[in-house]
Amino acid sequence: MWKELEEVARKVAGKRVLLQVPEGLKTEVERMVEVLERHGAEVFVDVDPTYGACDVRMNEARSVGADVIVHVGHAPMLDLSNVYYVEWRKEANIPKILEVISSLAEQKKVCFATTVNFRWTVDEVRKIPNVVVGKGSWRIRYPGVVLGCDTTSCNVEADVNVFLGDGHFHPMAIWVNTRRPTYVVTPQGDMVEVNYERVLRRRLALIGALEGKRVGIIVSSKVGQNRRDLALYLARLARERGYTPHLYVSDYIDPLYLLGLPDDFYVYTGCPRVPIDDAERYEKPLLTPEEFLYKLGLLKDLYIGWTTAAQLRGTGESDR
Fold first, then answer.
1. What is the pTM of this model?
2. Does residue 320 form part of some domain?
3. How far apart are CA 20 and CA 72, in angstroms?
4. Domain extent for 80
5. One domain for residues 181 and 111
6. What are the residues facing 193 on neighbouring strands?
7. Which helix (H) or strand (E) holds 29?
8. Exposed (0-12), middle (13-18) or buried (19+): which is 35, by Cβ within 10 Å?
9. Helices (H), ranges, 219-287
10. Where would you tag: which of 21, 121, 124, 305 has the fewest CB atoms within 10 A of its CB?
11. How remote is the C-alpha of 298 from its chain's centroid?
């Protein structure tokens, strides 16, 4: 929102700023820069893709001597003193959305979830009888909000899920993790039921067909995606089960980066969207940590989440 950006601009007045903007908002970059410069800031725009609140470009900020980072489009996740998050509200047809959800809630208990861009709708939707809104883990700032890697706000008793937003990954994660009927409501108020059984079967088939014992375990150097301890723990589990693990690190993962490496398959400990959304781009299988744990027999059910080494050390299995 422009009001929030103005407030941040006053706080960073006279400083050198690294501005991070997601792809969908780059058409507004010029105006954002003007707002910051009006208050005396010197602005560098990071043109790399920004994949979420977890993707804060610390190295780029250091490389240009930036005093602060202004990160647009996501809710605060990381407690970093020199990072200012500016959320970006997307508009939606709230009367139509309330109408279609109310109709469904007359027959079913509804778990409502959305992304931070539509969090302003949560207070209105939760007033509907038979609608519940959950509170997620520490990674999720607001009730009813989900991330691609964290749907814990849907860990509530309900008959069906309703997700408000664009894209397919968030509702897919909700469906996989809850195994409840799931509906997607578009910002325009159109509602459709979705089912990701085919995607789940495809991932299970991929895991079942894995051959070879050389596994490359990749750590993301992004500050909010770095699960180094998990990678080390997975490597230990792999060795104990006869695998030969190799540890890698990369800020951005691409199939070209893996060419020539000796591994039979890979485990990516960064964003889980990469192995699932980009699966067809990779010549060799690329798994999420949860999929590798499932392959090792340490998970009974496959899910999309944010497993940590601490969870594994504490229980022997991953927590949702």
1. 0.91
2. no
3. 6
4. 2-86
5. yes
6. 183
7. helix 29-38
8. middle
9. 228-240, 273-277
10. 124
11. 23
Residue 41 and residue 57 in one domain: yes
Residue 188 per-residue DSSP state: T
How far apart CA 142 and CA 124 sit, in angstroms, is 14
> Which residue is associated with the tokens 């994949």?
51
Same domain, 41 and 102: no
CB of 78 within 8 A of CB of 54?
A: yes
Write phi, then psi, for 218 (nearest 5 degrees): -105, 125
59 occurs within a structural domain: yes
Contact predicate 41/17, CB 8 Å: yes
Same domain, 206 and 311: yes
The pair phi, psi for residue 61, each rounded to 5°, is -65, -45
The CA distance from 154 to 110, in Å, is 10
- Contact status, residue 128 vs residue 149, Cβ threshold 8 Å: no
Q: Cα dist. 210→164, 206, 265, 280 in Å? A: 36, 6, 8, 15
Give residue-wise pLDDT tens across range 129-168. Answer: 999 999 999 999 999 999 999 999 999 999 999 999 988 9
Burial of 42 (0-12, 13-18, 19+ CB in 10 A): middle
Indicate the number of domains in the chain: 3
Rounded to whole angstroms, how far apart are CA atoms 288 and 113?
Answer: 23
